């Protein structure tokens, strides 16, 4: 009898239950139902092992012999074909992770660094809107610079800032994939930038109402609604809309409003809460807002939660204004620069900006609360139509 290739394709089909040798360690093991499996017996490191080569008849005799030849060659090289196959499967599985899954996992790991744990979705939105619909189902290991270029090309010049954010988020996703052990091209985003070229569009600042015209607008917010009161407090305090929308009763202590660190953009240190001084006018607004509060939140929406980011903006749109609520921070900053001698550190701190390097901040233990209170009192006088005299800061005092 032949030592190898003992079986034939037709004969294998008609064989009964049991073990049938094809030779050189290749066996067909069949059951009562006529189905079976291919098994290769090999000796590895002095021990006999059986390696499955697939189900019969799905795997043909010719294919089983081909797979057996590959396994034998691995044995001759002094390696374990079973381990080699398992390693190859693990490598293939790692590299089949699609971008959509990697992006979500990356987002989860970064939530602790994001304002409000990224609930507002601003970190993930550029990916969700502009990248994942096109690249989300691709294995992350296969994404290259041409894929990224083709994905972002439609918005590269028209929506330059959005495209920049999407590219940066995608770069972080690739780094996250690399950290997971996936084979990715970490330079793909930089190569894509080279292919796309420099964006023609220049990002524009949010339109701001000149500080001279703020009193007229402020006086028109006289209906006592949630939106009017929110805009009034926004203008007088200079805070961003997010902490203002989520202002809660437990954040107010006398004439100080303490904004939690996680609500402050760029303030991730748990000790970096931001204190906002409250003057007579702002205290009156807060008292009036309490009549609208729900679950302790002073500016609730009509249905649930708090008013949206767009609520105040839409009021200004309906009045035909191009300016937006965030621009009132610029109005305040310009007023400080043009009508006061407030030191740079005090003026920047009024807007909640982090001033100075790590070492400098470690030695500076003040947040200029009383200096800022005096300046905000003057700003309030201006905004409410009273006399807003020029403020002179002498030796850090107003």
Keywords:
single chain, 398 residues, alpha+beta, Double Stranded RNA Binding Domain, DNA polymerase, domain 1, hpI Integrase, Chain A, 3 domains, 4-stranded antiparallel beta sheet, 3-stranded antiparallel beta sheet, 7 strands, elongated
Radius of gyration: 34 Å
Uncertain segments: 266-270, 388-398
Strand content: 5-15%
CATH architecture of the largest domain: Orthogonal Bundle
**Euclidean distance between termini CA atoms:** 108 Å
For the record, the CATH class of the largest domain is Mainly Alpha
Q: Which fold name fills CATH's third level, the topology of the largest domain? A: hpI Integrase, Chain A
* Mean pLDDT reading: 85
Question: For this structure, what is the CATH homologous superfamily of the largest domain?
Answer: Intergrase catalytic core
| Overall 3D shape | elongated
Described by strand count, sense and barrel closure, the largest sheet is: 4 strands, antiparallel
- Order of strands side by side in the largest beta sheet? 1-2-3-4
| Whole-number total of structural domains | 3
Going by helix content, strand content and strand pairing, the class is: alpha+beta
Organism: Paracoccus litorisediminis
Keywords: DNA integration, DNA recombination, DNA-binding
Family: Belongs to the 'phage' integrase family.
Pfam families: Arm-DNA-bind_3 (PF13356), Phage_int_M (PF22022), Phage_integrase (PF00589)
């Amino acid at each position: 009898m032949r030592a190898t290739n003992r079986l034939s394709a037709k004969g294998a089909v008609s064989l009964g239950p049991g073990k049938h040798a094809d030779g050189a360690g290749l066996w067909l093991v069949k059951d009562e139902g006529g189905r079976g499996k291919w098994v290769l017996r090999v000796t590895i490191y002095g021990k006999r092992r059986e390696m499955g080569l697939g189900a019969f008849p799905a795997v043909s005799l010719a294919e089983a012999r081909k797979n057996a030849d590959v396994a034998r060659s691995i044995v001759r090289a002094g390696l374990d074909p079973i381990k080699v196959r398992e390693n190859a499967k693990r490598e293939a599985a790692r590299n089949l992770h699609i971008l959509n899954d990697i992006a979500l996992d990356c987002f989860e790991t970064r939530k602790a660094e994001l304002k409000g744990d990224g609930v507002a979705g601003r970190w993930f939105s550029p990916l969700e809107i502009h990248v994942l619909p096109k690249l989300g189902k691709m294995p992350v290991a296969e994404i290259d610079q041409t894929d990224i270029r083709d994905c972002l090309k439609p918005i590269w010049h028209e929506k330059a800032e959005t495209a920049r954010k999407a590219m940066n988020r995608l770069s972080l996703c690739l780094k996250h994939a690399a950290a997971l052990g996936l084979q990715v091209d970490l330079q793909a985003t930089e190569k894509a930038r080279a292919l796309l070229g420099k964006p023609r569009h220049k990002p524009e600042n949010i339109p701001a109402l000149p500080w001279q015209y703020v009193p007229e607008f402020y006086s028109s917010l006289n209906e006592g609604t949630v939106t009017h009161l929110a805009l009034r407090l926004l203008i007088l305090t200079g805070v961003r809309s997010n902490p203002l929308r989520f202002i809660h009763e437990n954040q107010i202590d006398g004439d100080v409003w303490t904004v939690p660190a996680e609500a402050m953009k760029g303030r991730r240190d748990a000790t970096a809460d931001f204190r906002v001084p409250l003057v007579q006018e702002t205290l009156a607004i807060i008292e009036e807002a309490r009549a609208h509060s729900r679950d302790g939140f002073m500016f609730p929406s009509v249905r649930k939660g708090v008013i949206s980011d767009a609520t105040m903006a839409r009021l200004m749109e309906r009045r035909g204004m191009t300016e937006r609520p965030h621009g009132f921070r610029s109005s305040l900053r310009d007023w400080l620069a043009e009508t006061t001698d407030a030191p740079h550190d005090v003026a920047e701190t009024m807007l909640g900006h982090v001033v100075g390097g790590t070492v400098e901040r470690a030695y500076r233990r003040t947040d200029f609360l009383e200096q800022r209170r005096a300046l905000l009192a003057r700003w309030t006088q201006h905004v409410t139509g009273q006399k807003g005299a020029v403020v002179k800061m002498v030796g850090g005092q107003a």
